[in-house]
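Record type: monomer structure entry
Structure origin: computed from sequence
Chain ID: A
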Amino acid sequence: MNRIDYQKPGNIEKKILKTLSERDSLDFRSLRASFPLSVTSFEKRCNDLMSLGLIKKERLEDETIYFITDQGAQVITQGFDKWIRLKVFNEIRNEPYVITKSTPSIERLTVRILESEGKIYLDGNLYKVVPGQKLHTKKPTIDIPSDNLDGLIDKVINDIYIMEIPFHHMAMEKTHKHEIRHVMNYLEDNNIVEVNSDPVKLTALGFQIYHIGHDKWRKEKDREELIGENIKNVHLKDKLDEKSKKIWKTKVNYWYSENEKIINIIVAAITVLGFVIAIF
């Protein structure tokens, strides 16, 4: 399992979203327990995510229960970094924008990044977009957080299942959209879709993954591969043991054949000596 760098901005928020997306709800203590004690800003990050509208909480009896919102579920698929960047840029472009004490930490960081890139500038207390600037001036690099990959794969598989998508359309998506290109290459390499089928079709494995979900299928596949590897190792050990026994037996037979006469003399002498001792 990959270790999470909790010092990297956004990683705490991403894990909170991912954890909540896998459950209907979670109480505060259970959610907190999924983080190490060294993460001291956990509650603040939760409050930030609530300010962003990505999670919500309710008080039930003596417990505080957290839920992911519909917007939060969309962000999980879209990618948190991409979403917060687009959100901040559009807010600054569309209306007066000012940093306040309640502005989420990740949003403040995004403002600083956009300012350092020359996308926005500070005019008095307000941030404004630099005239003529667009958010993406260069072709984006492949940036699919591993936390979100299962959801994106499921979305593409679902689209292929419910719609007759022409091959040329998916080929275009693969060329121009890095997320789809990444997923389609993965689906083809793992025999989840029929290569060059028109319209794009799922294989038998693809239908299986559609029904159970990619994350569950991948875990089952990993478990089966681990079991298979263990069985393989046991068989290999048995073969090595068998080979060792054959080698040992061969050496014993060779030694016996080389020393058969001496052995027969020794055995005969012991037999005679035993007979003599028995008489006397």
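Annotation 1: Confidence is low (pLDDT under 50) at residues 137-147.
Annotation 2: Residues 146-212 form a domain with the Arc Repressor Mutant, subunit A fold (CATH 1.10.10).
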